[in-house]
Every structure is written in structure tokens, then in C-alpha cells.
Specification:
34 helices
Length: 919
């Protein structure tokens, strides 16, 4: 395949032009690398390489101005703004930057198109004046300021550009307009210098002026890369600019228009694939490349062009392992590397000037992959120990002194992370650079393993040094929030460049990097509306109609630029694969691009269009099964010897796998900080407070006065147990204060119920509080007895009947402590778990000979106190009679089910099988 660059060089050779004497000017710097290679291919002898420049480099050379970064320009513009604005009316830098960026873009666009700035901004000011009824006598203060702003814009521009030119610097538009000013002097200085422009399409007025002047002075040649199809079809956007150039440029009235080719109409294999989501496209690109290799197709002349550059990492992860040489022209965004999240977290932490830090922010920073190793001293992981301390003590807000006490031996790194940021912006920036050097010192201990991480640190060090330089030169950054915005601005423009051989192997690039280049096989991704083309977007102070009137580009021209790039990729290619996302997205709908529809409607090529539905393997949701090996049986016997509690047995009923994890493997849920008091903590506090209040009255009948005497102690006991359970968590405000008050109310209401019971003539004698029980139970076909352990909240004598009482801070209803079928008590957790627990307590109390039958057992629900003591009851049928008396027969029936349950747990032939737990 003959490329456009090759055709240009052969044409120049045909006219005996010395390539060494030429200055080649191309749309991008990257194209220059391919140009050099083609020169070496067509030259038969050694020559000096010609001068090769991108259009930006050439224009900058003409202007004698240095191009400043967007951030530097914003600082310089702010200087001009402050110079022309009264101090009391001046906005801070952060507010200014929001509209300053937009205005800079407008300055840039207007200058590139050589439109007098005063003319257009005075026109805009007049429009705004009309909009706000300038003849109206009574204008609000807001309207006055608004109109004054529009009147000042040209003043801002004049002051700003004058300062820049004095410093021999500029933005792109200013550089272009200055280049036009200097063009005549350049031509006089270089009367014989020959220029070759190739591969251009859309040109701004400055570029058009420069190129046409050089052409008219016989100091240049220009080669266009356009196809006959695009030129002849007057509504085809790919040829929009070329048709205008050919029609309007005086030079082409006497000189040929080079070139209009006929490559697009030649036979091509074009395949279009609709694929769901970005990852689907990335994976399919990998499949296409693999198929090409399987067909012995070399990837040497193949390009993957990413319409959405966010696909870069997914595509790299999807490449076949057989892909050899690879060149990536896009660069890896610095914002995507792990170190970014660390500084993002630090900036967010220090935006507020509070002296204490939220525990999640602290843990997030200390757990970061670049920070955690710094807390490792003498083979001790102080990071883990400190985080456990925070969690165990419910420390929600921490100051620097607490952090130093918790994370011992790490004062220096803690100071860098958490203190001194609010002193000044310079102090904050120094903290960042010192932190980078601190991390580097750790990584230097094993350089070979940390080369990539050290590269990350180098680039961030460079970024923060740039921020220090800007702040030192301008001092406009007044707070961490503004610094954070600038940091993100710089970060978004920085990339880590991949190292590779630019002329070998598979090429992965963005759409703009493909300019002037031709490939035999092209894979284009993300060909969706809103991406290719980008669609309507207006980020400008200049209205659409004003842009039209002044020949400034609108979204239509920008769409035409991408139309040209898209068709140029296809123009000389033989194999074309076009991918688009079929799935609707929040911001970008799943609509294929108009480019695809246009390709199909042209009728020039036979197109294979497929919707790809990924083959997702059906994964059966099979339950987890843990086989009982000899080792596992040994562990089960150990648990059995220590004792099964009622809660562990109900855990098995609910889901055997939970029992296996918690009791056999000893895996507990991670103890995180309780920001709001957890339900189990509330329950423990209420239980323990009642235990303290009732302990002095064991073996005594309760009186109205004895219960009333408990009330003054409620607050002290509840507070004590909250502090004991909730550690250093704050219960003085917010939801925790509400929970604290609920705990007091629960105890208070319970005592009121007790008083009313006594007033009603009921005799209540406290027998035991928090009664510990441990018994052995014989299991048929089992070698040794198994222990049962448990603690009964309260045992009392109520009008001569012994009651076993279990407190519940949650809501319990009477039907939850009633059973019909004994067999269901060990299988239906949802219905009968509470019945199972209270019967287990009754069984243990009877077996340990602490009570005599008959008795009653049940639950007191603090959320359902009005229902009183909810007694266990055996029902003959669903609507049959209830028997709430627990007799020996009751416990024998229960014992059969209890033995059966424990036999199942200890049976080596019955595996632990996961149950589906319904909410």
C-alpha cells in the first residue's frame, strides 16, 4: 500500500527537488517520524535530513513567542484582572478561574481567526446591553455589574496580551496572530527557503494567511490528502474544508490542487460491530487482533484508533499475548496512577481547617499502598495495630496527638500527612514534596522492584515543583481548595509516556494522532454519537449566531474535522473494523455514530454489520458444601467439648455454613468503628444495666419501693456500660445521643411495668440474674457427651411459678414463641429460633437441677413491652389450644430434637451445606 507521505516524496523527487533543502510542515509532530522513515526508504544515497516541523512549532518560530501552559496563562490573566479591578470588587482566584478559562479559550479562538478583539467584544457588550434594557432608568446593582463586566473584557484582553508580549510569551492564538504580523519579515529574511505543507485539512485564518503568502511568494508547495468521493459530493463533510480552499484560494486559480485521489472507492473489507459497553469493545479488539494473527496477517501496518481514550487500559489488558512490538502514542494519564488517590485524599482532608480528622479519612490514607509500608518498623505492622486501636475504641475523630500516641514510632510521617497544612500554601506544598522524598527513601531500599513506583514519584515531584514555582511567582493561591483545583488542572494535562519503537508493530493511538498516517488495517472503537463526532458543545461566551457572523468555527466545523479524520483512516485501508457501544449510558446514549449510517447509505462498499452479544457463561448458584474430613471432625469435637451455646445452635439452623465459618474456622465479622451505636451494643448495655440494678435483690421479693429505688441509678449505670462497650465513642450528640436516651427509656419503662405488676398484686421474687449454665448432654451413637453452655438473663418466681426470661431489645411477637410441630423447631429458623433458644435455657436449668418443673419460659421485648411476658407455648394445631406450661414431657420432646440437631452437626457423613437465607 502506497501511503500519502510516500506519494508526496515521490512527486518531489520526480521534480528533482532536493529533500535536504526543504522544510516539511505537518499537522502533528508524530507524522514527522513516519516522514523520516519514508525518506530513508526512497533515497538511494546518504543525505542530510530535512527540517521537519509541526505547524505549531513553525508558527511559534515565526512569532518569536514562547507558548505558556494553560495554568500559567490563567495566573497571568489573573494579574491583568487584578490590575484593572478595584480591590473590593475583585474575585478570588478560585472564582475567577471558572470564567477566566472560558474567556482565555475565546481570546485564543478570536486571535487564531484574526478577528479584531475590540470589534467582537464591543459587539457582545452591545448585545448584553440590549438584553438588559439599557434605556431603563432603574437598573439593579447586579445588572450594572454584569454590563460593566462585558464592557471591561476588551480592556482585560489588551492588558493581558501586552504583558505577555513584553515577556516574549503567549497563548496559541496570540502566537498565531503574531506569526502573521512577522510573516513579511520572515519572507524577506528567507527568500529561497522552500516549505512543503502536507496533510492539512481544517485551517484557521492565521494558518491560511501564512500558507497562502508563502505559496504566492513561490516559497512553498502544499499537498492535500482528499478523495474524489468527498470532493464531488458537496454535502459530504469530509471534503468541506478542501472544497472551500480549492474554491477560495487565489493560488489554485493558476496552480493544480494536489491531490484528489480515488483510493476510497477501491475494494475494502469493512466490518461494523455493535458491542455492549466499553469493556466489551476492548475485549473484542483483542479478539480481532488474535484472528488477524491466526490468518498470518502482520500487525506491522495495523492501527487501533481509540475514539474514547479512556479505553486505553482495557485495550492493553485485552491484547493477545502473541502481540510482539507495540507502540502507544497516547500516554498513560497521570490521574489514573495509584499515587493520585493519595494526594486526592490528602487535599480533601485538609480543605477544612479542623484540628481533628474523621477516622475513615485517616484509615484511608494510612492504608494507602504507598503509605502503609512506612509504618512498618522492626517487623511490626504499626499501621494494622493502630487501625485496630481506632476500631476497637470507636475513635471517630482524632487529632494529631492521638494519632502519634496510636501509631507509635511514626511521628515524622504523621506530621507530613496530618499537620501543618493550614499554615500556608507553601507549607502545604513543602509537605507534599517532603512526603514524596520520604516515600522515595523507602522505595530506594529495593529499587529493582520499585522502578515504576519511583517513576510515579518523579512525575508527581515535578508536578508539585511546578505548583511551587507558580505560587512563588504569583501568590494567588490563598487556600487548600484553590490549590486542589490547580493540582487537578495540572494533573489532567500530564501523562506518562510509554516507551516503544514508533515505527514497528501494532500502533495504538487517539484519533488526532492518526493525521497524515495511513494503515492497511484499521480498528476504530467508540464510534458513537457524542464521541465521534463529539456533537454540540458550547463552552464559550460568544453566542452561536455571533460566531457565524464572524466566521468563527462552531460545532458544525468541529464535526467536519472529525468526519475528515474518520474517513481519512478508511481512505487507503484495506481492512476496516468499526466498533460502537450498543448500551445506553447516563451521559452518552448507546446510539451508533452518524458516520456508520453514512457509510451504509453511501452504497460504495459492501459492509458487514453485526450486533455482538457476548457469550456469558451461566454460573449455577450452587450452594457451598464443606465436606467433613477427619481434621474437620477433630475441630468439631473441640467445639463440642467447649460447649454449644443456644445462639451457635440457632446459627447452624439458620445456615450451617455460617456456623462453620464462625465456630469452626473462628472467622468473625471485622470490628469496624461504630459511628452509630449498633443494635447489639444497645442490647448489651440494657442487659448489663438491668443486671446491676437487680443484683442486690436476688432471693428477695420485689416491692414497689425497691423498684422505685432503682430509677435514680438508671443514668449512671447506662452511662457506665455505654462507656464500657462503646469505648471512646461519642454519645453526647447526634444519633448516638438518641440511642443513649432510648437505652435509658427502655430500662425506665421496664421498671414501670414491674411496678404496675406489683401494684396489681403480683408477687415477684428474683431467683437469679444472668445465670451461667453448663451441662453435658448424651448424644446417641456419640462417643463422648457434648457440652451446652449459656447465660439466662433472669429467673424469677411469679405468683409461685418459676419463669425463665430472655430480654430482647428488638421487637418480638407472641406467635414467634409458639410451636405446633416439634420437628420444625430445628429446621425453620425464621419461625422458631426464639422458641428454640428459650427452651434450650429451660432444658439447661432443669438438667443442672437449678429449677423444678413445671415452669414457664419466654421473652420480654423492650419494643413490645405492652404485651408483657411472651410465654413459650405448645399448640395442638395452627388454631388449637395453647399450653404454656413447660413440663418434663415438653423438655423430653425438645431433647429429642436437640439431640438430633447436635448429632447432625457431629455426624461425619452429613456435610456442612449452605442454605438460602431469606431476609
Amino acid at each position: 500500500m502506497a501511503s500519502f507521505i510516500t506519494d508526496v516524496l515521490l512527486d518531489l523527487k520526480k521534480h528533482n527537488t532536493s529533500l535536504s533543502a526543504l522544510t516539511f510542515i505537518l499537522p502533528s509532530r508524530r507524522a514527522g517520524i513516519f516522514l523520516k522513515r519514508q525518506i530513508s526508504n526512497i533515497e538511494n544515497e546518504t543525505i542530510f535530513a530535512p527540517e521537519i516541523l509541526s505547524i505549531e512549532e513553525f508558527v511559534q518560530e515565526l512569532s518569536h513567542l514562547k507558548l505558556l501552559t494553560n495554568t500559567e496563562l490563567l495566573f497571568e490573566f489573573y494579574n491583568s484582572y487584578l490590575g484593572l479591578t478595584k480591590k473590593e470588587h475583585a474575585e478570588d482566584f478560585q472564582s475567577f478561574s471558572k470564567w477566566g478559562q472560558i474567556l482565555l479559550q475565546d481570546f485564543n479562538e478570536i486571535d487564531r481567526y484574526l478577528i479584531p478583539q475590540e470589534q467582537i467584544f464591543n459587539y457582545l457588550s452591545a448585545i448584553q446591553d440590549l438584553k438588559h434594557w439599557s434605556l431603563e432608568e432603574q437598573q439593579t446593582e447586579f445588572v450594572k455589574k454584569y454590563l460593566a463586566f462585558w464592557n471591561k473584557i476588551f480592556g482585560y484582553y489588551a492588558h493581558f496580551t501586552e504583558n505577555l508580549i513584553d515577556k516574549k510569551a503567549g497563548y496559541q492564538g496570540l502566537i498565531y496572530s503574531e506569526a502573521v504580523e512577522n510573516l513579511e519579515a520572515y519572507i524577506e529574511t528567507n527568500p529561497k527557503k522552500q516549505h512543503v505543507f502536507l496533510g492539512f485539512n481544517a485551517l484557521n485564518t492565521s494558518e491560511e494567511t501564512i500558507i497562502q503568502e508563502l505559496l504566492q511568494s513561490d516559497l512553498a508547495k502544499i499537498y492535500w490528502d482528499i478523495d474524489d468521493v468527498f470532493m464531488e459530493r458537496r454535502f459530504h463533510d469530509a471534503g468541506l474544508f478542501m472544497r472551500q480552499h480549492k474554491r477560495k484560494w487565489t493560488y489554485f486559480k493558476q496552480n493544480p490542487f494536489k491531490w484528489i485521489s480515488d483510493n476510497y472507492s477501491k475494494e475494502k473489507t469493512i466490518s461494523i460491530f455493535g458491542i455492549p459497553k466499553h469493556i466489551g469493545q476492548a475485549k473484542y479488539i483483542g479478539s480481532i487482533l488474535k484472528d488477524l494473527q491466526n490468518k498470518n496477517h502482520t500487525l506491522e501496518n495495523t492501527a487501533v484508533v481509540l475514539g474514547d481514550e479512556n479505553l486505553l487500559i482495557p485495550v492493553l489488558n485485552s491484547l493477545p499475548t502473541t502481540v510482539g512490538a507495540l507502540n502507544i502514542t497516547m500516554g498513560f494519564p497521570l490521574k489514573s496512577i495509584p499515587l493520585t488517590s493519595l494526594f486526592e485524599a490528602l487535599f480533601n482532608l485538609h480543605k477544612t481547617t479542623s484540628k481533628s480528622f474523621y477516622f475513615k479519612d485517616v484509615i484511608n490514607i494510612i492504608s494507602h499502598q504507598f503509605i502503609r509500608p512506612l509504618f512498618h518498623h522492626e517487623n511490626i505492622d504499626y499501621a494494622s495495630k493502630g487501625i485496630d486501636t481506632i476500631n476497637n475504641n470507636n475513635l471517630i475523630y482524632l487529632n494529631i496527638e492521638q494519632l502519634k500516641a496510636i501509631f507509635t514510632g511514626s511521628a515524622e510521617i504523621l506530621d507530613l500527612l496530618f499537620s501543618g497544612w493550614s499554615i500556608s500554601i507553601n507549607a502545604a506544598l513543602r509537605k507534599c514534596t517532603k512526603l514524596i522524598l520520604f516515600i522515595k527513601g523507602h522505595l530506594d531500599k529495593d529499587k529493582a522492584s520499585n522502578l515504576l513506583a519511583l517513576e510515579y514519584l518523579f512525575r508527581f515531584n515535578k508536578l508539585f515543583n511546578e505548583l511551587i514555582r507558580l505560587n512563588h511567582g504569583h501568590e494567588h493561591i490563598k487556600d487548600i481548595s484553590t490549590l486542589h483545583d490547580l493540582y487537578k488542572e495540572l494533573l489532567n494535562s500530564e501523562t506518562l509516556d510509554f516507551q516503544g519503537e514508533p515505527l514497528q508493530g501494532l500502533q495504538i493511538m487517539g484519533m488526532l494522532e492518526s493525521r497524515v498516517l495511513d494503515f492497511e488495517t484499521v480498528i476504530i472503537s467508540s464510534v458513537n454519537e457524542g464521541i465521534l463526532p463529539a456533537g454540540k458543545s458550547q463552552n464559550s461566551f460568544i453566542p452561536f449566531d455571533v460566531k457565524l457572523e464572524n466566521n468563527l468555527p462552531t460545532y458544525k466545523e468541529k464535526d467536519a474535522v472529525y468526519t475528515y479524520h474518520f474517513y481519512h483512516l478508511i481512505q487507503r485501508a484495506k481492512n476496516v473494523f468499526i466498533l460502537y457501544n450498543t448500551e445506553a449510558d447516563v451521559l452518552i446514549g448507546g446510539e451508533k455514530s452518524r458516520f456508520i449510517t453514512q457509510l451504509e447509505l453511501e452504497g460504495i462498499h459492501k459492509i458487514n454489520h453485526q450486533i455482538i452479544v457476548p457469550k456469558v457463561p451461566v454460573v449455577e448458584n450452587s450452594p457451598i458444601v464443606v465436606k467433613k474430613t477427619d481434621r474437620l471432625m477433630q475441630d468439631i469435637f473441640e467445639v463440642a467439648q467447649k460447649g454449644f451455646s443456644p445462639s451457635s445452635l440457632t446459627s447452624y439452623i439458620r445456615n450451617p455454613i455460617d456456623f462453620y465459618y464462625q465456630k469452626i474456622l473462628k472467622i468473625r465479622e471485622y470490628d469496624d468503628v461504630e459511628e452509630t451505636v449498633a443494635a447489639n451494643t444497645l442490647g448489651t448495655v440494657v442487659h448489663n444495666a438491668l443486671e446491676d440494678l437487680y443484683n442486690p435483690y436476688i432471693d428477695q421479693f420485689l416491692t414497689e419501693d425497691s423498684v422505685k429505688n432503682m430509677k435514680p441509678k438508671i443514668e449512671e449505670r447506662v452511662t457506665f456500660h455505654f462507656k464500657n462497650e462503646y469505648k471512646e465513642g461519642d454519645i453526647s450528640k447526634g444519633k448516638n445521643l438518641i440511642v443513649f436516651e432510648i437505652a435509658k427509656r427502655y430500662v425506665h419503662n421496664f421498671l414501670n411495668v414491674e411496678i404496675n405488676d406489683i401494684k396489681a398484686g403480683n408477687a415477684i421474687k428474683i431467683l437469679q440474674i444472668e445465670a451461667e449454665n453448663e451441662i453435658e448432654i448424651e448424644i446417641p451413637t456419640f462417643e463422648r457427651p457434648v457440652k451446652l453452655t449459656g447465660k439466662v438473663d433472669r429467673v424469677d418466681l411469679y405468683n409461685g411459678t418459676v419463669r425463665i426470661i430472655d430480654y430482647k431489645t428488638g421487637s418480638v411477637q407472641q406467635n414467634q414463641v409458639e410451636i405446633v410441630d416439634w420437628e420444625a423447631i430445628t429446621t425453620d429458623y425464621k419461625k422458631y429460633s426464639k422458641s428454640f433458644q428459650i427452651l434450650t435455657y429451660a432444658y439447661m436449668m432443669f438438667a443442672s437441677k437449678k429449677i423444678e418443673l413445671p415452669i414457664e419460659a419466654g421473652i420480654i421485648s423492650f419494643k413490645n413491652l405492652n404485651s408483657g411476658f411472651l410465654k413459650f407455648a405448645k399448640k395442638e394445631s395452627a388454631r388449637g389450644k395453647k399450653d404454656s406450661s413447660i413440663t418434663e414431657d415438653t423438655l423430653k420432646s425438645f431433647e429429642i430434637e436437640l439431640q438430633r440437631l447436635i448429632s447432625e452437626i457431629c455426624n461425619p457423613d452429613i456435610n456442612f451445606i449452605e442454605k438460602e437465607v431469606k431476609p
